[in-house]
Amino acid sequence: MISPATAARSAIALLVLAALVSDALGAVHEGLLAQHVSYFTNQSNLMFVVLVGVGTAMATGRPAWFDDARGAVAFYLAMTGIIYALLVAPLDELLRWDIGWTGIVLHRLAPVAAIADWALTPREHPASSRRILWWQAFPLAYLAATWMRGGVTAWYPYAFLDPTASSWSQVLITTVVVLGAFLAIATLMHLADGRLRQVPAAQIAPVQTAR
Predict the structure, then answer these.
(1) Tens digits of per-residue pLDDT, 16-64?
(2) How many domains, the chain?
(3) Which domain holds residue 22?
């Protein structure tokens, strides 16, 4: 019997997948698929779909790393929503709903759903605060890859990462601020892990240490 939580995750993941496929087909038609897959939004949403699929396949007995991976994806989607609202979307768009169904799903629904799922799902294993740092690995790799690719193609997925739109000094200042926000939000996500539905400490599986 599928639990309501699993059914809800699966339904949202299928909706996200439909939005990703719809946008990708449009990008293929316009000859912009390479640029399309370069957006952090699309990559973080795809991670969500994959994670839900893996989690559903595991069903029970998920290893400790899965909790941390689920937290990482929830964190990336949280940042997707925040950065879109603060740095990407025009101010007059934030309170509007006429941005297309895929935009609503990828920029609003998925981030909110991932954060809610993270806070509502009880933690199965003890968590180390070190995950706050390793959660930054993908954003840092994405940043490096974006600048390297932009240096070759002169195209950047986001204006705030584009030195040709302003200057490298402005881009680096913005990047430092954004990375600071990433660390702050990652810390909050770490602390919020399952807080709305806590499992008694005696029921949390102990971490298996290597011998």
Answers:
(1) 999 999 999 999 999 999 999 999 999 999 999 999 999 888 866 778 8
(2) 1
(3) 4-203
